[in-house]
Amino acid sequence: MSTKEAPLSPPLPRPSRRLPVRTAIVFYGVLFGAAWLWRGAVRGLPLWRSEPGGSIDWVRDPLIGAIAAALVIALSAVLTARTAMGRALAEALGAALGPLRVRDCAVLALVSGLGEEAVFRGALQPEVGLLWASLLFAAAHFVPRRGLRVWSVFALGAGLLLGALYAATGNLVAPVVAHASINAVNLRKLSREYGGS
Q1: Category of 5 on φ-ψ map: left (φ > 0), alpha (ψ -120 to 50) or beta
Q2: How far apart are CA 32 and CA 180, in angstroms?
Q3: Who's near 117: CB < 8 A, 6+ residues apart?
């Protein structure tokens, strides 16, 4: 009989973040498909443009979206750094996200930007107007958990901005660029700073 201690069992593998990313791709794909079916098949209107004859300016519209994203990202950073409410929200969101790879953040940002903008701006806003679409967007981001409730207030402001971009440009390009950019930067920051190792 050996006097050596029995080896410790190997550490459990870290939970994979691939399943949530794959689930998000499917979820947002379904949202995008539903919006496209509603706008195109049921209403007979284009999803990407608010008016059938509207156009997309491939320089102006992405640039407007990027500028709006930069403003929201800067505001978010200031609120996180200078307010207890912002810090608590960042900590709660980061803990819920956990550690994410850069690629996962980029994929989540892209699919959420496309899926949510297709539904809330492309399909809903032309039907119910800017205010109601923004309120529904905020309601979709409501989490009944302490520390995360204020997220819906931030989402209301973001929804109003994204809806204003849609109304001003007449298409989804600026809102999608803004939404995806905001999510890409903030997901990475939240995951890296508050998501754990």
Answers
A1: beta
A2: 14
A3: 162, 166, 172, 175, 176, 179
Q: How far is CA 10 from the centre of its chain?
A: 37
Burial 1-10 (b: 16+ CB within 10 A, else e): eeeeeeeeee
The pLDDT tens digits for 132-152 are 999 999 999 998 887 788 999
- Under the banding of pLDDT at 50, 70 and 90, the label for residue 66 is very high
What distance in Å separates the CA atoms of residue 52 and residue 54, rounded to the nearest whole number?
A: 6
Q: Using CA atoms, how far apart are residues 96 and 63, in angstroms rounded to an integer?
A: 31
Query: Which amino acid does the sequence have at 44?
Result: G
Closest C-alpha to 88, from 197, 196, 190: 190
